[in-house]
Design brief:
The chain is mainly alpha-helical. The chain has six helices and no strands. It is flat and about 50 Å long.
Length: 117
């Protein structure tokens, strides 16, 4: 149980990028959280790691970094994507309770996705 709480803390910390812009909870926060959780799993279980588990951690890390990097680059370079992303309805400030619930839900989801490793 303690390992899951450590993973949850890491996921909450990394996915907190969503506080900058709401959609980041689901996009950049997801990618970097998966990468961070792969590293966290590798560190926590380094003494009991098998080659398949190590490989899965490496794959999850590469996947998370690649996804988040792609999303960041697309947001910076694509004018048409910026037009959609920053529409008036998307940039409205969300209520704090909604933000907190989405943040916690996303962090729990990311831990749930990576914990079987």
């Amino acid at each position: 149980m303690g390992y899951l709480l450590i993973m949850l803390a890491v996921s909450l910390a990394v996915s907190s990028v969503g506080w900058l812009y709401f959609i980041y909870f689901f996009s950049i926060g997801y990618g970097f959280s998966i990468a961070a959780l792969a590293v966290t799993i590798a560190v926590i279980f380094r003494t009991a790691m098998t080659p398949p588990t190590a490989l899965l951690c490496v794959i999850l890390f590469i996947y998370g970094v690649r996804l988040a990097s792609f999303l960041l680059i697309r947001e910076r370079r694509s004018q048409s994507y910026k037009k959609i992303l920053y529409q008036p309805g998307n940039t409205e400030k969300k209520p704090a309770l909604v933000m907190v619930m989405i943040w916690i839900s996303c962090a729990l989801l990311y831990v749930g996705q990576t914990s079987p490793v």
